[in-house]
Specification:
single chain, about 550 residues, mainly alpha, two-stranded antiparallel sheet
Length: about 550
């Protein structure tokens, strides 16, 4: 990571952009193939719902998408408790307006967004990489690592099929999306889109510092403002990492970096409104306070350092080696200090004592792959070149050895993502909930949307409940591990509701307490128990199809 004159720093040739465009196209095409398979392979009685991973959270987002088409502020429709329309999210409001004015359903809008998110993320990341990696060949390697690299989870997969009897040990070390660019673009595009804004915010802040100009700092603040109204917690990354860079400059130069300080103030003042709003929402409103408290229900936290090595694999190992080498040799150019500070501050942020600490992994892969590429070129390749060139009969020169090392390293970081990609086809081939719904289930939800009030509470299994706000626009009784208040209590109530051994008195208590208007009874509900609402005087059948019945609750 040598420095260049200011007029050359960050310059990207047309040839480089063509390379970037080709990689983006490859990533987007490959991540689209499982979706295409899902649609084309749907059985005649089922419908692919257009989602690839983490349906519960996507159900939450699509609930907002539906509600934002008719109002600016929305209420939480994934829980039956009455609540005021207080919530706003810029991303899903924007996607809702796209649907509203184009008439496109969520599946089409979601795919378009996934392409925009993936492409913009990789484009913005390359712009940022170009600020810190001056040589085009290194940039390309860094970019390929960012686009495709994954960890050592493939080792756990091998163990699954050999020694552990089909059990995948430590599945989170394989399936965590934050920090895995390819997996984010495949099934978590909102994470990829957030990194777009993180990368642009850092690029503008960096340019403001190096070019000694204020306007780039202002643009960094504007970009951070937009980020804050989509992912407020990501502002913590912006503030802490810019602060870490300022501190490292101060330590190195023993002169306080006033320009960086005031630039940081500009960024914070312009961007903090989204964070302030989120704090007020989750502290003043009791329901949203409860929602935030339930983030612990997911039970997903940043892996411990040994498991972190499995999650990120060789790039993390090599990045740590490169970071230590730079720190010891005191190779502290501004470029190195920014990347080193981002990597070190990120390592602290991912363990902050909050229930959303794991989200701090998002974007950490950028400084990681920059450092890893530096270690690859400055440590690994020179060491192997001495061995390879020195062995007679191999006919290898240093350039050939360098190429072989780079290709080998790139191939070594792909297998886990290859497994994750192939496994999407395996998972979808089951044609089962939650990625597929019976067409009768979809038709019943459509009937609810056309014939009932959006305020009506619908009781169902969580399998259907997570789709209720998005497809029928109703309020779900049970839908999400955090957004459904008293999640475990309501889960037990749903299980009891369809249990034949439970009395109607218990059902009546649930129906009256939470104002349930309709009961959804389909394959997922019958799997919970043998209770048939059609045999009770508590309900009146209002919709019928071969697989699904809808019942209105009698007053």
């Amino acid at each position: 990571m040598n420095t260049l004159p200011p007029e050359q720093r960050g310059a990207v040739s047309g040839r480089e952009w063509r390379f970037v465009g080709l990689v983006i196209a490859v990533v987007l095409v490959f991540t689209s193939l499982p979706y295409l398979y899902g649609y084309l392979s749907s059985p005649t009685d089922k419908q692919y719902m257009g989602l690839m991973l983490n349906v519960p959270d996507h159900g939450q987002y699509l609930s907002w998408w539906r509600s934002f088409q008719s109002t600016f502020l929305v209420r939480n429709k994934l829980t039956p408790e009455a609540n005021e329309p207080l919530f706003f999210n810029l991303l899903w409001w924007t996607l809702a307006q796209v649907s509203k004015w184009t008439g496109l359903g969520y599946a089409a809008v979601y795919q378009a967004f996934r392409w925009v998110a993936g492409g913009s993320f990789l484009w913005a990341a390359y712009r940022l990489i170009a600020q810190f990696v001056p040589e085009a060949p290194r940039r390309r390697v860094t970019f390929l690592l960012l686009s495709f690299s994954s960890g050592l989870g493939w080792v756990l997969v091998v163990l699954k099929y050999t020694l552990t009897g089909g059990e995948l040990l430590f599945p989170l070390d394989v399936f965590i999306a934050e920090g895995n660019s390819f997996l984010c673009i495949l099934g978590y595009p909102h994470f990829a889109f957030a990194i777009t804004f993180i990368a642009l915010a850092f690029e503008f802040a960096w340019r403001g510092w190096r070019e000694e100009r204020t306007w780039p700092m202002v643009w960094s603040g504007v970009v951070s403002f937009l980020l804050g109204w989509m992912h407020a917690y990501d502002l913590l990354l912006i503030y802490v990492i810019i602060g870490a860079f300022a501190l490292s400059i101060w330590v190195r130069d023993r002169v306080f970096p006033w320009r960086l300080f005031w630039g940081g103030v500009i960024i914070a003042v312009l961007s903090c409104s989204g964070a302030v709003y989120s704090v007020i929402l989750t502290t003043v409103d009791p329901l949203w306070e409860e929602v935030l408290a339930q983030f612990a229900n997911a039970g997903v936290y940043t892996p411990t350092p040994p498991h972190l090595v499995i999650l990120f694999g060789f790039p993390l190992i090599l990045a740590a080696i490169a970071w230590i080498g730079m720190a010891v040799r005191r190779h502290w150019s501004d470029e190195r200090l920014f990347v080193m500070g981002w990597f070190a501050a990120g390592a602290v942020l991912i363990y902050i004592p909050t229930d959303y600490q794991i989200h701090m992994l998002n974007s950490w892969q950028i400084p990681m792959v920059i450092l890893a590429t530096g270690g690859l070129y400055d440590v690994i390749i020179p060491a192997i070149s001495k061995i390879g060139v020195g062995i007679r009969g191999l006919g290898l020169n240093r350039q050939r050895v360098s190429q072989l090392v780079i290709v080998t390293f790139l191939l070594a970081v792909i297998p886990t993502n290859l497994y994750l990609w192939v496994w999407r086809f395996v998972d979808l081939a089951r044609h089962d909930h939650p990625y597929f719904l019976y067409r009768d289930e979809v038709a019943a939800l459509d009937w609810l949307r056309e014939n009932t009030s959006a305020d009506d509470v619908v009781l169902s299994s969580i399998t259907i409940g997570q789709y209720v706000p998005a497809l029928s626009a109703n309020t779900a009784f049970l839908a999400h591990w955090a957004q459904t208040v008293d999640f475990y209590d309501k889960s037990e109530r749903v299980e009891s509701f369809f249990d034949t051994t439970v009395s109607d008195d218990a059902r009546v208590e649930t129906l009256r307490t939470f104002g349930v208007a309709y009961v959804f009874h389909g394959p997922a509900e019958r799997a919970l128990g043998g209770y048939d609402p059609g045999q009770s005087s508590l309900f009146r059948e209002v919709y019928s199809s071969p697989a699904v019945r809808l019942y209105a609750v009698r007053e």
